[in-house]
Amino acid sequence: MLDVGKWPIFSLCSEEELQLIRQACVFGSAGNEVLYTTVNDEIFVLGTNCSGCLGLGDVQSTIEPRRLDSLSGKKIACLSYGSGPHIVLATTEGEVFTWGHNAYSQLGNGTTNHGLVPCHISTNLSNKQVTEVACGSYHSLVLTSDGEVFAWGYNNSGQVGSGSTANQPIPRRVTGCLQNKVVVNIACGQMCSMAVVNTGEVYVWGYNGNGQLGLGSSGNQPTPCRIAALQGIRVQRVACGYAHTLVLTDEGQVYAWGANSYGQLGIGNKSNQSYPAPIFMEKDSSCCRQPSPCPTPDFPCAARCSRIIEIAACHSAHTSAAKTQGGHVYMWGQCRGQSVILPHLTHFSGTDDVFACFATPAVSWRLLSVEPDDHLTVAESLKREFDNPNTADLKFLVDGKYIYAHKVLLKIRCEHFRSSLGDNEDDIVEMSEFSYPVYRAFLEYLYTDSISLSPEEAVGLLDLATFYRENRLKKLCQQTIKQGICEENAIALLSAAVKYDAQDLEEFCFRFCINHLTVVTQTSGFAEMDHDLLKNFISKASRVGAFKN
Length: 549
Prior knowledge:
Layout: H1 15-20, E1 21-27, E2 33-38, E3 43-47, E4 62-67, E5 76-81, E6 86-91, E7 96-100, E8 115-120, E9 130-135, E10 139-144, E11 149-153, E12 168-173, E13 183-188, E14 192-197, E15 202-206, E16 221-226, E17 235-240, E18 244-249, E19 254-258, E20 273-279, H2 301-306, E21 308-312, E22 319-324, E23 329-335, E24 338-345, H3 351-357, E25 368-369, H4 378-385, E26 394-398, E27 401-405, H5 407-413, H6 415-421, E28 428-431, H7 436-448, H8 455-468, H9 471-484, H10 490-499, H11 503-515, H12 517-520, H13 524-527, H14 531-543
Parallel strand pairs: 26-28
Antiparallel strand pairs: 1-2, 1-25, 2-3, 3-4, 5-6, 6-7, 7-8, 9-10, 10-11, 11-12, 13-14, 14-15, 15-16, 17-18, 18-19, 19-20, 21-22, 22-23, 23-24, 26-27
């Protein structure tokens, strides 16, 4: 459960009200406004109501939560806010609603009048399903389910991407270099815009006075331009601060560029950077938060704990944060008046807490999702019953150890068990084809929809998933292997990908080996590489120019 109480604005809510909150976003120039939803799908707002940003139809502040009836029946998928502030919200049905400050047409309704109540924005979006939204200080972006980006609002530096500097009063599709691209992630800085496409490339446009576009210059960019310096690096996510940018790669590496007067790039100095620079988290396994005994003892703890899985920044702050695969949360930049120039390990469990306690203002960098801790969902109940001998009616004997399960759940969740268990009344099944850790992970997946294995053990589970034709499990195994790849195990994982015909994973492992070729070729795995695999590897590597001087 996220502790929303870390945000000062929530001190105005009673304990009973806090327990009902399911989603929340703190925003405003001083963190003095909040929107939240309850377990009953009701939307409430609270705060100073600058420019009518609470959407209540007036500009009166409220010290008590008021229900936002105009959005009754709507479920929020995502939300972002600007500096006015203005609000852009997308529902789970893909509709867009905006309200608040509108001096620069950032609401997209064709006017410059402040919006005191939520307005449904349908111009050029009527047949589109919006899946992601992002706001700069006074401009707005949305991403549709088919990978298109639409922008509107303030455009003095080209942040709308239209090729001019005229403000854009209604949604306009961002084209140019993005015309035939499928965008998967968007973000906005104060006056710049970013988009990540499905090939891992990053396109940028807008204000560039601090080098926040990463193009090696400080000139503004009125249309999308690819960051050439990231050639060969596959980016998954982008996050923008006020005038700096962070990206997360598929190998768990973070790069940063742009303004750095508060150390928000995390590179050890306060000099602006106009090219992407890598950020390195300390590899300290002594503070590992994995349970004891460690679930992945064969996988180097420091490598696991330093691999980044989440980055966080907000256009209204000069603060940066990141979370590692091992559960560590780091922060840097402007932190409660201090300039932290290198990633600092915190005791927080999530990046949201960094912004609640150390950002100025104390605002949310994303829409928070809050689950009450006094109610177990069906999924949570099932998780608790896995390997429970008190309720199980079936035991699997693997490597001399029992794993307890429930026949009816296995039949519901897996085609293999539907046919193999059938009317079988035996309460013990012996299993010799797979190891205990692998088979236990498989059964646990049927209860939890997730896996927790080292990449090496995930290879064994990939074998099982292939054998049982569990395609989703196969994808999860490939994802785990990607997150856990390192120079020492790269060849073994590449070999497994080839063996199990996991083509996407094979390409990922190959690219990793090429990007770390010097170290990989010195490992025991490379020395013991299968002859045919080695031959194919060298041939493919030469075709991509890996051996050029």
